Amino acid sequence: MTSTRPPWPSLYNPGLEILHVPHREAIQPGGHYLHKAKDIFLFTFYWILLFYLPIFILSGTYAFWNQIFPPTPPSVLPKIVLDTPIPLRPILTRPMPPFKPARNERRSRLAFALIILFVFIGMGLAGAVVSSAVLGFATAGLYIAADFHMSTWIPFLLAVTQVVVGLLSVWPSIGDII
Description:
This protein is mainly alpha-helical.
């Protein structure tokens, strides 16, 4: 058993681990394995960073452009006609002044947009660190306690699972759709 960390992605043919399993050694020639908790955390962190952060960057970029170029409200409000026997009249007798957003003299729209973009990127990075620490060290504890050899495919699969679960939790529930 070597305890040196393989270079980062170190993905190999998964058939070595899946096919023809009976009566074979636990460590296959041509496979790459992780043995230290720090190495497992780093591999998990790199994969989660690779899959997780681009989603936050895309969302932050979308929010950035919406802040820079806000959508224009419709100029004509739809008129609602109600058929009711009760006569209705507006409460306000004077017209409402047009809405003007408050002007901030200290920060421009670009500054707010950049703050929004950096918050998205920072939260994505923080989420990647926290989730890779939890997943990486918990899985490392299980593998080390059982004296197993962790394939370099396991952190990859943990990262894919984390990102898919994160994306599914954003999707609205069926109760909200109905």
